[in-house]
Design a protein that fits this description.
The chain is α+β, with helices and mostly antiparallel strands. The protein is built from four helices and three strands, in the order H-E-E-H-H-E-H. It is found in: Cytoplasm.
Length: 123
């Protein structure tokens, strides 16, 4: 399948699932600090890997992924209602910790910079 078309479908699914997070899903397990970072649809449009970033402790992350997995059928139906394609991809939710890892790395860099400034002799 055309790479551009797959990318457009991925972006459209990202918009739809993001909208559902804010307005459509009422599962209390899903953290309000959940956001969809990216979607990768397979070339045959059978599967959509949906990467979710969830701020919170490990228990909140696990319960949010569990809640998203239990809503797969509803999410897939909504995708089918909003996108006119022959096959509606099966959503696969993956925890994306890249944002938290970036924050952690940024803090480490800031700490190193602060320590370097303390060690410099003042003239």
């Amino acid at each position: 399948m055309n790479e551009k078309r797959v990318n457009r479908i991925s972006e459209e699914i990202k918009k739809i699932v993001s909208e559902l997070l804010y307005h459509g899903l009422k599962d209390p397990r899903i953290s309000p600090m959940t956001s969809i970072t990216r979607v990768r649809v397979t070339r045959d449009l059978r599967y959509a890997k949906i990467y979710a970033s969830i701020l919170g402790n490990q228990e909140e992350k696990e319960s949010s992924i569990e809640g998203l997995n239990s809503a797969k059928g509803f999410i897939r139906k909504e995708i089918g209602n909003k996108i006119d394609i022959r096959y509606i991809p099966e959503p696969i939710f993956i925890l994306d910790e890249s944002i938290e890892e970036g924050i952690r790395m940024s803090k480490l860099i800031d700490d190193v910079n602060k320590n370097n400034h303390k060690d410099e002799p003042h003239e």
